[in-house]
User: Fold this.
Amino acid sequence: DLLQAIHAREVVRSTLMRGTLHLASATDVLAYRTTIMPPRNVTLPWGVKPTTEELERVLDISRRHFETEPKDFESVREVLEAQGVEPVRPLAYAARIFLPLVQASSNAPFGHEPGGVFTLAKTWLGLEEYPTPRPHELARRYLAAHGPCLPADFAAWSGLGAAALVFEGLGDDVVTFRDERKRTLFDLKHAPRPDGDTPAPVRLLADFDGAVLGRADRTGIIRPEHAPLMASKNGLIPAMVLVDGLVVGTWRIEPKKRTVAVTIRLFDTVSAKDRKAIEAEAISAAKFLEPDAVAAVTFTEE
Assistant:
């Protein structure tokens, strides 16, 4: 049970790939947090690029602030501001991406409060993170889920540079292929590789799903003519509807008092059979969110 694992601190919410919050096993957070941490010369929000000395000072203040007990990010901004740190908002963000922080669990429906409070992984888990980067182990984990793929795909997912060298460093653990554009794809040698004609089941992907974010080239899942329909002004990745492995629409779920409304927005033609499968997936998602509510599924078409 996921909630039990969260409350037992076996699963934690932490800043991982691409500087975003992920739910991951405590073991993986400790093992890979150092690996995926961005370089210290990163440009922070609002174009702020602190000196090494400025960044180290901010992280030292923030580390001491978060190490005793869980606190929110507003409080660390106040502490930094009191210490004369400017500009405070982007520099406070540095604590989120550079410090090994985890979000403290709560009795909220999904184990964490919106916004929430954070503390150091060592404080929450009683263990230190691995100090040495492990890019090759992380690459194997990525290939097990996403291969065959391009080195650029791994770079897009992990935020790491020199992805081609990392893949090549896997040696005999990987095999390579050429795609129709003559690009080199890598995969684990003994990974299952179903025939290309194997049908893929209908799926509803969540916002920011790794199946999409885990690719630099998304044409294998989003047809070029549909890409503009997926775009948003603020760069958000919408929840997607997949039929036979390709995006045919988006979906939105809204819990209400006694119902859960699921709206399916289609921008491609689907068969009656696939429409029924989409509806079944939508009902399943609604029941997961609110087991006792009635699911109301609505289709709209572009």
Summary: The CA atoms of residues 200 and 245 lie 6 Å apart. The mean pLDDT is 90. DSSP finds twelve helices and eleven strands in the chain.
